[in-house]
Amino acid sequence: MKIHATGEDSSFSNGTEFAYEQALANARIEGFVPDAKFTADYLEMKNGNITADEFRARVYSNAKAVEEEATKGKPSSEE
Question: Are 63 and 26 in contact, with CB atoms under 8 Å apart?
Answer without folding.
Answer: no
